[in-house]
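User: Sequence recovery, please. Input:
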């Protein structure tokens, strides 16, 4: 294995890499760096995510670019704004000891004037998303006539996202003499076509076997039904109190719904998808990187290529439409030598789709059972005990309170004290999972009269009743008229004199509220008002609208947990937000999910 210096990089670059903790080149770097430095041939690189490909293309460019010449010499195109920002920041880090080397990152959704000003000052390297790059070319703010290197990063995704026309426009204004470097984790026909049309006899390199997943990732699947998918997701999160991961969904709507449900249930979660404004996306990513958000619920496109280290889990809430995307998803974890787990929540019907994925990743999925309530309690309890064991005592801060505390607890034995402390934190938690169902028992769930159990449903109050000539059929008609969703399931209906109750599948809870709020329907001349209501459940679960998720404000072990409507019946526990006082601001403003729904 060579060193970075042996690959032909100069000392200022090597020094920056040492600062970053890069000790030796990765496979793709070892192959790409000397190739690009020594040859002007185009390059086609099969590189999985997380293999160090950003450095593989940017280090040789930094080596060769002329820092004393302010012309733009390299243009790097990336499919998403987040990835462009990440690449730009990486290059800044790599070039910090090269005087006068400037990199500017340009992407949509941000102030274009500012980007134009930055470009005017001169940038040898420009990183951009295709749309904004074209825009800046058209405004004559970005001149690519002197470009020596064109990098197409995540080329497959750029084409998937429909950037073919933008790529054509950009390529048109770059000189024929440039060197094109194409990096892609998959090589479908469209990418091969790009390579064929835009590159001349490219040299091919690969960072291992094409499309093969990382060795550091283990792959598990959990069998679920549509009804147990969300409760299973929560149990996985509850089993792993320190989980730090991405939950992948297929559509923006599914992403937002899962995120909203998790936020509502008190998890440290947020959504990342294309419907959010740039400022929202930046804010979510900032929180996720700082780990104030533990679970990022994202679409494939939004999370493509994102480099966040130390992710413990990637969860496929649903399998991707294109199986190649599984590799991208699971590649978010197990990076930089760390271990990671990639989980698939899969229905019996879709289980057959795991096979072709196994062939791509060259690994077997391990069937894993959805944890029982008892397992979760045990894990959470041990996690708490570990924390107690490891907490540092700051004597000076607590010493003045200690004498009165000792006095109060004087009569208690060590055992009693431990039992009381555990009960204080865990009574609610244990009762939450006390009667939790076995979510692995698929047969009983599917035989349940084809209808959801009450636990899977959200109960709504509606301000019309028998006196308004309402009957179940009319109520169902009224609900259906709101176009809440094709697959909405309506549960129990109770028609009373002046008002009524109805249940819908809890996955449609937000959509139902939103639909009634925005449609403002009439019934027999009376304006209809719908509110979520507390469920009448024997275990005391359920939730009132507007109620704060956590009972008391002080946090810590004594913090009361929120009750929930989950179909695994009980109250959610875990550290989550309660351990993170920094988040209290978000909570006060009603959570990110709510703000977004108001948009
Ligand atoms: P990338 O595939 O470029 O997104 O890189 C994946 C991760 O590996 C990033 O966190 C990089 O900072 C890190 N990385 C890249 N090259 C090296 C290296 N030679 N040594 C250690 N870490 C690296």
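Assistant: Recovered sequence (599 residues):
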């Amino acid at each position: 294995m060579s060193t970075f210096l042996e690959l032909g990089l100069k000392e200022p670059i090597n020094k920056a890499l040492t600062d970053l903790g890069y000790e030796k080149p990765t496979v793709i770097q070892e192959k790409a760096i000397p190739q690009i430095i020594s040859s002007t041939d185009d390059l086609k690189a099969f590189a999985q995510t997380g293999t160090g490909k950003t450095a593989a293309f940017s280090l040789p460019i930094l080596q060769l670019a002329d820092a004393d010449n302010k012309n733009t010499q390299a243009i790097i195109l990336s499919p998403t704004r987040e990835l462009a920002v990440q690449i730009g920041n990486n290059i800044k880090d790599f070039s910090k000891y090269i005087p006068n080397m400037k990199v500017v990152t340009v992407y949509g959704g941000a102030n274009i004037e500012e980007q134009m000003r930055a470009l005017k000052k001169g940038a040898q390297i420009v990183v951009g998303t295709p749309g904004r790059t074209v825009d800046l070319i058209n405004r004559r703010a970005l001149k690519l006539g002197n470009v020596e290197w064109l990098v197409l990063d995540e080329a497959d995704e750029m084409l998937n996202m429909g950037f073919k026309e933008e790529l054509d426009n950009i390529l048109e204004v770059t000189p024929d003499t440039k060197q094109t470097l194409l990096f892609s984790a998959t090589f479908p026909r469209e990418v091969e076509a790009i390579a064929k049309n835009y590159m001349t006899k490219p040299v091919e390199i690969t960072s291992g076997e094409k499309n093969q997943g990382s060795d550091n990732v283990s792959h598990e699947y959990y069998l679920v039904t549509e009804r147990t998918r969300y409760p299973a997701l929560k149990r996985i999160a509850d089993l792993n109190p320190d989980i730090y991961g991405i939950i992948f969904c297929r559509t923006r709507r599914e992403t937002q719904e899962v995120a909203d449900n998790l936020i509502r249930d008190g998890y440290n979660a947020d959504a990342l998808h294309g419907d959010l404004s740039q400022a929202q996306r930046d804010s979510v990513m900032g929180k996720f990187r700082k780990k104030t958000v533990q679970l990022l619920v994202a679409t494939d496109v939004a999370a493509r290529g994102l480099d966040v280290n130390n992710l413990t889990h990637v969860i496929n809430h649903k399998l991707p439409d294109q199986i190649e995307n599984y590799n991208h998803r699971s590649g978010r974890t197990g990076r930089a030598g760390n271990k990671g787990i990639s989980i698939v929540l899969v229905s019996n019907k879709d289980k057959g789709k795991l096979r072709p994925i196994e062939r791509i990743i060259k690994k077997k999925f391990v069937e894993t059972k959805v944890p029982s309530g008892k397992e979760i309690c045990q894990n959470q309890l041990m996690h708490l005990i570990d924390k107690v064991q490891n907490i540092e005592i700051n004597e000076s801060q607590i010493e003045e309170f200690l004498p009165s505390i000792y006095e109060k607890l004087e009569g208690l034995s060590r055992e009693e004290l431990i039992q009381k402390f555990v009960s204080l934190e865990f009574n609610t938690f244990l009762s939450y999972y006390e009667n939790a169902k076995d979510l692995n028992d698929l047969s009983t769930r599917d035989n349940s009269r084809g209808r959801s159990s009450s636990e899977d449903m959200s109960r709504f109050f509606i301000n019309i009743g028998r006196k308004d000539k309402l009957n179940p059929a009319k109520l169902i008609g009224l609900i259906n008229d709101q176009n809440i969703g094709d697959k909405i399931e309506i549960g129990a209906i109770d028609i009373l004199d002046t008002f009524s109750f109805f249940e819908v599948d809890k996955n449609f809870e937000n959509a139902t509220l939103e639909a009634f709020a925005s449609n403002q329907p009439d019934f027999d001349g009376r304006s209809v008002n719908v509110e979520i209501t507390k469920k009448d459940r024997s275990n005391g679960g359920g939730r009132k609208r507007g109620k704060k998720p956590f009972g008391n404000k002080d946090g810590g072990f004594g913090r009361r947990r929120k009750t929930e409507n989950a179909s695994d019946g009980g109250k959610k526990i875990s550290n989550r937000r309660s351990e993170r006082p920094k988040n209290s601001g978000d909570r006060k403003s009603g959570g990110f999910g709510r703000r977004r729904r108001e948009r």
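Residues 236 and 371 are 7 Å apart (CA to CA).
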